[in-house]
Write a structure and sequence with these properties.
globular; alpha/beta; disordered N terminus
Length: 497
């Protein structure tokens, strides 16, 4: 019986390969001296004018189609013919005849699923036009990997520094050197007032980013605001939450390692020796957005004696009764409602943009690990017998794994964690939790926030949950939220607790 099933699967795979659009991929001789390997992703979109780059767009998910296949030892100058088998939203072979643009990308670092865009070291082709392309009649499409995406650089200044430290605990976990990284922004008076110590704000970026991204974007803005007096002078530390399996969220995990422990016991002491930080709990303040919002909230409730408060914005689901509108604790199907309708994941201005099933399908094309849902598995799930994080749900049917759900709930459901441990945590956490979210959050994160708010009220936590009417995940900070948060942090740092 097993042999018959294997035969059927092989025949199906062969039929798919025969019907698939084929590609002739060449690595330009001058781009690498040695053969290269990685995940080959081919992008296709309709149009008669070639653009500069093709990439996924969550706001128009079906505009760009993707196909992928793992490629091994692609030698310079030797064309390789491939027929990718991982597809989104459908196989290229199903596209109607017309004018199309194509681009090939070789993800040599296997982090495209996390970054969702090209990253330093990736190899890509130019965008190639194919006019009158008919998948049923076309021969192999020739694409040459001729460009190497440059590595990102951060311009250090007198007040903006890149800092790195090898973590002993993380290195032991992985069996190789693991470093913790950050961009540190010093206040304008730091070099002048040499005896002064400053409160420190630890900032955690969202999914898909890293410390260089957020430091490059936010450090100059905050520097100007501090210089003009719009925000108090503080040291800002932009932490790096990126790891091979996605965003580690500074949670101790059986798959990612002890990131919370490493931050509080190793990296923060290292930073406080290197810079004039005041080194007191009310002078160690947390903030972050999206996955960084969850991370900052998690760190505060797990290390209340280390940090003086968190100002978390649009956090990932902190109550698993509404995990992007899915009740995990009730056993909801991840893809379908009780009525059999596909669950929506992304909304924008009231319009449903992308279903959860579509997102997971796209994620599986972009990478075997590191995508957003895969990242949640890596943080929250037990390790499976194959050494990989156990999956929360069946990727084909959307059915939840009750064992994995229970593991998530027991260890990482923030609402449940607070309820179970409030007798111990209450005296140390009261008044320290501040949360902001838009009422039109693109990923329904406001629903989980309301559940957590109710729990915080029942616990008499003196927490503050603020909903900004009409704002979503991406425009929440418009209108002075940066200044508002910085002002509240400054008041805590100046308190005599």
């Amino acid at each position: 019986m097993i042999g018959r099933i294997v035969l059927v699967l092989l025949l199906a795979a062969n039929a798919l390969a025969q019907n698939a659009v084929r590609f002739q991929i060449t690595l330009a001789p001058g781009l690498s001296e040695k053969p290269v390997s990685g995940r080959l992703i081919v992008f296709m979109t309709p149009g008669s004018k070639a653009g500069e780059v093709l990439e996924p767009n969550l706001m128009e998910p079906t505009k760009v189609w993707e196909e992928a296949v793992e490629v091994h030892d692609l030698a310079p100058g030797k064309p390789l013919e491939v027929a990718p088998t991982l597809v989104f939203p459908k196989s290229f072979a199903e596209a109607p005849a017309g004018d199309y643009q194509f681009m090939a990308l070789l993800d040599v670092n296997h982090n495209y699923a996390y970054r969702e865009r090209t990253d330093g070291g990736d190899l890509r082709s130019e965008v190639v036009m194919e006019r009158g392309f008919d998948p049923a009649k076309a021969g192999p499409v020739a694409l040459t990997l001729s460009q190497r995406v440059p590595e990102g650089a951060f311009a250090e200044t007198e007040t903006q520094k890149v800092v790195s430290m090898e973590s002993a605990s993380l290195s032991r976990f992985w069996g190789r050197p693991i470093r913790m990284d950050a961009v540190v922004l010093l206040p304008p008076s730091y070099a002048r007032e040499t005896a002064r110590r400053y409160p420190t704000v630890y900032v955690i970026h969202g999914f898909g980013g890293n410390h260089l991204d957020i430091g490059h974007r936010d450090a100059p803005i905050l520097a100007k605001k501090m210089a003009s007096g719009k925000v108090p002078e503080m040291i800002y530390v932009f932490l790096n939450g990126e790891c091979p399996l996605g965003h580690h969220e500074f949670a101790d995990s059986v798959n990612n390692g002890p990131w919370g422990q490493a931050l509080t016991q190793e990296f923060i002491p290292f930073l406080e020796k290197k810079f004039r930080m005041d080194g007191k709990p009310q002078g160690r303040l947390l903030t972050g957005h999206s996955s960084g919002g969850w991370s900052s909230l998690w760190l505060e409730i797990n290390y209340p004696r280390v940090f003086g408060g968190t100002w978390s914005t649009s956090p990932d689901p902190e109550d698993f009764r509404s995990f992007t509108d899915i009740d995990l604790l009730r056993g909801d199907n991840f893809y379908y409602t009780a009525e059999g309708k596909e669950r929506n994941l992304v909304r924008f201005h009231g319009k449903q943009i992308m279903s959860m099933k579509e997102y997971v399908q796209l994620e599986r094309v972009l990478g075997d690990y590191g995508g957003q849902i895969q990242s949640f598995d890596a943080v929250f799930s037990p390790r499976g017998e194959d050494g990989r994080p156990m999956e929360l749900f069946d990727r084909e049917t959307g059915a939840l794994d009750p064992f994995v759900v229970k593991s998530w709930e027991e260890r990482y459901d923030i609402d449940q964690y607070l309820r179970r441990n409030w007798k111990r945590l209450g005296p140390e956490l009261r008044g320290k939790i501040h949360l902001w979210v838009g009422t039109a959050d693109n990923f329904y994160l406001n629903d989980a926030a309301r559940l957590l708010e109710q729990t915080l009220k029942e616990l008499n936590a003196d927490a503050k949950v603020t909903y900004i009417e009409g704002r979503d995940h991406f425009d929440l900070y418009q209108g002075g939220l940066v200044e508002k948060i910085a002002s509240e942090m400054g008041e805590v740092a100046r308190s005599k607790k």
